[in-house]
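Sharing a chain and its predicted structure for anyone who wants a worked example. Both blocks are below, sequence first, tokens second.
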Amino acid sequence: MLHSIDLFSDLTSGEIEEMLVGSRRMHSSSNQVLYTPDDRCDSLSLVLEGKLRISKFLPSGQEQIMNRLEKGQMFGEALVFVGRRYASYVVSEKDSEILNIPKKVLLYAFKNQRFLLTYLRSISEKILNLSSIIEILSLSTVKKKIASYLLELSLEKNSQTLKLPCTKKTLASQIGSTREVVSRNFSELERDGIISMPDRNTVEIRNLKRLENLLFD
């Protein structure tokens, strides 16, 4: 399993076995809370099976889903080295299995320079992604936020035909909106001929200039 994940692809079978010996597996059931903002992060966590969601709970009790993690995805890469508490709740979306790799095991694995460089690259990519989200959040309207999101994705993929990497519900959580408002704005962009959507996961940018101009309206 670990060989198929980029972070561990440069490790030998023996090195992976050594890492597994010092790590611990956690099994969880659907809707089980794994970590809360009261818990201190002491491990890098990897989803082996199932699906998790990262959530905040508003004073009203309403859950705001920040992200979803599926098989092969990780969390806690940076927190594990600063000893801070989790910023959000980590909840099982369905029955799941998680591998927790403690800080001391990671530090030993960093003797492998290829593993260290891959680890740093993974953290750097997340930081860049968060920077893009912060930039999007600074925009004044949902339509501008969606335009910025699509333009960033187009630059990243070097294409005007885009497979959305997340659902509209997840995107809405990331940009501080609701799924209904996000869906309505996508429909308006399609109606105005700026984009087309052959299916719900694909966006074709039909008028790049008009999409860019939305940022300056």
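Comments welcome. The longest strand covers residues 63-70.
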